[in-house]
Amino acid sequence: MKDPESIPQVGELVRILNGRDQNQYACVIEVLDDRFVRIADGDKRKVDRAKKKNISHIQGLKIIAPEVKNSIDETGRVTNAKLRFAISSYLENSLLKEGE
């Protein structure tokens, strides 16, 4: 059994380490069990065709997008636009911090 802290949470932003989408960013939209999650980015990987991913193949960024988490908690779904917004906001903030 894995440490509960190492399992990504719904709404958490992750970086993909292995596979065709390597070094891309996505958001966890569902935790399937202690080994697998479903991720989507709202652009290339839409919510309707979310990717099942082994958690050892992703790196959790320890940042939870509140708009994504709230949407999933309230309605059980999230829009692709909210995913794109959350990922682009994170990337803009991280680039601004690197530039300082």
Automatic annotation (TrEMBL):
Cellular component GO terms, alphabetical: ribonucleoprotein complex; ribosome
SUPFAM superfamilies cross-referenced by the UniProt entry: Translation proteins SH3-like domain
Upper taxonomic lineage: Bacteria, Bacillati, Bacillota, Bacilli, Bacillales
Protein's recorded name: Ribosomal protein L14E/L6E/L27E
Organism annotation: Salisediminibacterium halotolerans
Keywords: Ribonucleoprotein, Ribosomal protein
